Amino acid sequence: MMDKGHEIDASKANICRHLTRAAKETPASLAVAVQKRSLFGKLRYEELTFGQLNTDSNAIAQALNDHGIKRGMKAVLMVTPSLDFFALTFALFKAGIVPILVDPGMGVKNLKQCFDEAKPDAFIGIPKAHIARCLFGWGKPSVRRLLTVGGNDVFANIFGGTTLKALLKRNTVIKPRSKMHQAIDYDIAKLKNDEMAAILFTSGSTGTPKGVVYTHAMFEAQISVLKNDYGIAHGERDLATFPLFSLFGPALGMASIVPDMDASKPITANPDSLFAAIEQYQCTNMFVNPALIERLGKAGTQHHKPHTLPSIKRVISAGAPATISSISRFSKMLKDGVEVLNSYGATESLPLTMIGSDQLMKTTDVTDNGGGICVGQAVDGVDIAIIAITDDPITTWDETLRLPVNQIGEIVVKGPMVSRAYYHRDHATVQAKITDGANTVRHRMGDLGYLDDSGQLWMCGRKAHRVEANRVAVASDKLPYFSIPCERIFNTHSSVKRTALVGIERHGETVPLLCVELNKGTSLTDDTARNTFFAELKTIGAKHQQTVGIVDFLIHSNFPVDIRHNAKIFREKLAVWAQKEGKAS
């Protein structure tokens, strides 16, 4: 949690210390650049230096305090990636105001539930967010302060209280975004280790969205991993495609280059815009999810002369496992020796492990034969344990819970970046957290996997996605089917794009069934072709212990997946669909 030469009192932390230090040491260096596309399609860029970002965030922090939004209050922040987004977020952190960050892609119903649970004191958003707040009653019982970012005073008076611009004008002493970026003092709040710094809601792609309580100590731990394990250095430039990660840029002394894209729907991004931003600023780092790796890889290699990214020296992928094929295609744009670093983690604890693409390529045979997906070794300071599969809560950690290597169970993690609780979700906290000593908790990931002899972690799918069914064809009839091992075996068929294991009820028993999405252009137009295809799948399944007994298949035209990653399959929806289909072929 401490970087050499800049030790801090770990019990009193605020990640904004990194920004203030950068503003003092390199005030004229670029901190943020936001790409904009005009109505005529021309790209332009808005920029802030470290000095300007520090000055802006100081000014906004003071203005928020003068407006009655003070330390300990909670504020919804619904602002699109922009210069104001960065300045506002750092201002909230500096003031000790707790930002509530949500993924707009989670849907109106989930958003209302999130705000009802978080009970925000203030709502800071763009005009569109305020209109939605009024229409759907977001935060209505608790919100007492409104702030509009963008828009005019007339709109703000009707829907959003006051504008950020008007709020800053009230203080004639403060001149934000000054070209002189002169220092404006603000007494940054120092929070205790267990004091709430932010509430980050999970996306809801694997269950109901839950508010994860973040502390500045957690942020410090994440910054430490990015510096020490990933090797990110001061002065780098990052193509920031995910708003939360983009905030780490200025904290690391790295410029965040924000492309013109909808961060909640990366699959819709225009590859040319991203390539242009990388070239414009000679980005050295990229943080991209699997959907973007797939999209950029296809765009960059579809021409006679492949696109190249010579300035990139590191690619970080997280959110879901990227496919080997998409990584291989994307890597053709990179210089020799530059790897895609795949990370494993969750909102509650990130990052936990890391594996480079070179090493990942060597694990394909194991994966294709039902061994799960390798997600690498634990990063520094993280302890990974595997425990027996149970849906019951576990209150206190005991080393006897730890399973031997190569045995599948639930993944449990401990480390300085692991969250301690969900906000106002006591039941969820009890289900997910295990007390380990006076001030430490372990987090149950809800994922299944195992550790191999060398300490590498292998993912075998969500605990909730396992299918408990009688397996008379193997030694134990109580061995469950695990989603990733089963699906990866069947995915080796040349006509298969992806598969999803679900359980359906038939004659009072749970039966495993495989939903199949075919490759684009593959068509099984008649019963003969379909039966031949299913027979081939049965033959594949019979060769592996993990899939023996899976003999029911249904073809689905287009799997329902999460918006952000375009990779997390909504198996619950597929299970309902499969059950309605009746007897499978």
From TrEMBL:
One of its GO terms (molecular function) is ligase activity. Keywords: Ligase. Residues 21-423 form the AMP-dependent synthetase/ligase domain. It comes from the Bacteria. Gene3D superfamilies: N-terminal domain of ligase-like. InterPro entries: AMP-binding_CS, AMP-dep_synth/lig_dom, ANL_N_sf, ATP-dep_AMP-bd_enzyme, OlefBLtnSynShew. This is Acyl-CoA ligase. It comes from Photobacterium profundum (strain SS9). The gene is XF2276.
